[in-house]
Amino acid sequence: MSFIKKSKIVVICGPTGIGKTSLAIKTAKLFSGEIISADSMQIYRYMNIGTAKPTLAEQTAVFHHMIDIIDPDEQFDAADFAAKARNVIAELCEKDILPFVVGGTGFYIKALQHGLFRARPADQKILIRLKEEAIKFGSSALHSRLEEIDSDAAHKIHCNDTFRIVRALETFESTGKKISEYQKEHNFGDNLFDVLKIGLAVDRNRLYERINKRVDLMLESGFADEVKNLLEKGYNKNLKAMQSIGYRHLVEFIKGQSSWEKTVRLFKRDTRRYAKRQLTWFNADPEIIWLDPAEIDQATKLIKKFIVV
Question: Is the model's pTM score more than 0.70?
Answer without folding.
Answer: yes
